[in-house]
Design a protein that fits this description.
Layout: E1 3-7, E2 10-12, E3 18-25, E4 33-39, E5 46-51, E6 58-60, E7 68-73, E8 78-83, E9 92-101, E10 104-108, E11 112-116
Parallel strand pairs: 2-11
Antiparallel strand pairs: 1-3, 3-8, 4-5, 4-9, 5-6, 7-8, 9-10, 9-11
């Protein structure tokens, strides 16, 4: 059974950092593309970052380039998102996803809430 479970969200002050984790089970993360998305209530879900299968090439949306870092630990079968220099506009529920394409993910976690507030 494919399962993705996010953790690491919480409340942080502007300028702070967080590391989100996504533990996968039922499949190997590096057999597929993996990605992080986020959604603000009332708005559409948007992609944040993606890492390709096997080669591990990364891609970032312009809004997070230089502040976010996606990585994967194949031994732990876990996906990570390091978030730095957080600002209130980063407040959202963050989801990890996996599939054959960044534009067509097949499986999703339930999300973890990140709140940036002073």
């Amino acid at each position: 059974q494919v399962q993705l479970v996010e953790s690491g969200g919480g409340m942080v002050q502007p300028g702070g950092s967080l590391r989100l984790s996504c533990a996968a089970s039922g499949f190997r993360l590096n057999d597929y593309a993996n990605a992080w998305f986020r959604q603000v209530p009332g708005k559409e879900r948007e992609g944040v970052a993606c890492i390709s299968s096997s080669a591990g090439n990364t891609y970032y949306e312009d809004s997070v380039l230089g502040r976010f870092s996606i990585s994967r630990d194949n031994a732990k079968n876990t996906l990570y998102l390091e978030i730095n220099r957080l600002n209130p506009e980063d407040t959202a529920v963050y989801y990890c996803a996996t599939g054959h394409s960044y534009y067509g993910m097949d499986y999703w976690g339930k999300g973890t809430l990140v709140t940036v507030s002073s």
